[in-house]
Write a structure and sequence with these properties.
- With about 350 residues, the protein is α/β, with parallel strands linked by helices.
- It contains 15 helices and eleven strands.
- It folds into two domains: about 160 residues, Bordetella uptake gene, domain 1 (D-Maltodextrin-Binding Protein, domain 2), CATH 3.40.190; about 130 residues, Periplasmic binding protein-like II (D-Maltodextrin-Binding Protein, domain 2).
- The strands form three sheets. The protein has a six-stranded mixed sheet, with helices on both faces.
């Protein structure tokens, strides 16, 4: 004989159900009012996207890619314009966003991916706490590479560990300069860094002109923007080591990762810490203290933009790779760096910020 399942009558009073429904309605109404407020704020406005790089490099290209598509996904559909603010390896832009820029959601920006480490290491000139920025997202991870000119004697990492190579870089604080310093300290390379180039476009051109023999840390994004033939055709450049926590999935086959060539475990961990920047690569942010509803709207707009077929098609035309990273993930990576063991932080800091040579 079949028995009917026992069904226990709900003890939740009807009046409580009414309160719950009323609460849901109130939350929905508040959310709609917040969305309406955000749309009203942005309608007819121009959002300024501060790019910490000079025109032509991967940061500038990424800033303009996002700027072209972000506005239509922000409530109120504001226009978005890019303003270049190079200087001090893009620290000028980072300090500006943190302390000077309007904190109402009308200014966002992108600066050097490694500056959060400069803040962790208490480098001179840093006037921001990266954990207090309102990170919106990154359209891509990145891999940088130590590259030598094709007509130089440098074909492998071992060559640069045996003989001095003159490399051109952007100013201290930039990836290219930092990577040169890190490679010398943690992999024993003999790079002579010439850091008078305002941006990567000029530093790469210096290789073409024979002013320098290579570059200590040019990103794949920059090469795809400035010298795609170097990556797509043999015989244009020699790639010696990849600078990232993971190798590029399709390019640079056979080129070793720097962390694979570390001399001991502490150096490997220090390299991993300094190269964690490559996972967040092209992260952009709003200043601290922007109203939370506008931050949420900017993050949602970014999440929608990187899935937008128009942006994806635009990126393909530009040879730009899209590997989105959310704003929450960017912040988590930064906080993880701050939580690293003290001896690893000390080793990485000593590598990135060596003491000045006495005059």
């Amino acid at each position: 004989m079949q028995t009917r399942p026992h069904v226990r009558a709900s003890r939740f009073p009807a009046r409580h159900a009414g309160w719950a429904l009323a609460s849901l309605v109130a939350v929905a109404a508040a959310s709609q009012a917040s969305a309406d407020d955000v749309a009203a704020f942005y309608a007819g406005k121009t959002v300024t996207f501060v790019s910490g790089s000079s025109p032509g490099g991967s940061y500038d290209v990424g800033s303009r890619l996002i700027a072209r598509h972000l506005g239509k996904h922000i409530p109120g559909k504001p226009s978005v314009v890019v303003f270049n603010m190079p200087g001090a390896g893009s620290m000028t832009a980072a300090n500006h966003l943190y302390s000077v820029a309007n904190k109402d959601g009308s200014v966002i920006g992108m600066f050097g991916r490694g500056l959060f480490l400069d803040a962790l290491f208490e480098a001179p000139g840093v006037r921001f706490d990266p954990r207090k920025f309102n990170w919106i997202g990154s359209h891509g991870r990145e891999v940088s590479v130590l590259v030598a000119g094709i007509n130089t004697p440098f074909k492998t990492l071992a060559d640069v560990q045996r003989a001095e190579m003159v490399v051109g870089a952007s100013p201290p604080g930039s990836d290219s300069h930092s990577f040169g310093v890190i490679l010398n300290a943690l992999l024993g390379t003999r790079l002579k860094i010439v850091s008078g180039y305002p941006g990567m476009a000029q530093a790469i051109m210096a290789i073409d002109r024979g002013e320098v023999e290579g570059n200590p840390g040019v990103s794949i994004g920059t090469l795809m923007a400035l010298r795609p033939q170097w990556l797509k055709e043999p015989g244009h450049a020699n790639f010696l080591v990849q600078l990232a926590t993971e190798a590029h999935p399709t390019l640079l086959k056979g080129v070793p990762l720097a962390i694979e060539r570390a001399r001991d475990e502490i150096d490997r961990q220090a390299l991993t810490l300094t190269l964690s920047r490559m996972t967040i690569a092209y992260a952009f942010t709003a200043p601290p203290d922007v109203p939370p509803d506008r931050v949420r709207a900017l993050r949602a707009a970014f999440d929608a933009a990187v899935k937008d077929p128009a942006l994806i098609a635009d990126a393909e035309r530009m040879n730009a790779e899209i590997y989105p990273v959310t704003g929450d993930r960017v912040l988590a990576i930064i906080e993880q760096a701050y939580a690293s063991p003290k001896d690893v932080i000390a080793r990485a800091k000593a590598a990135m910020l060596p003491p000045a040579t006495p005059k």
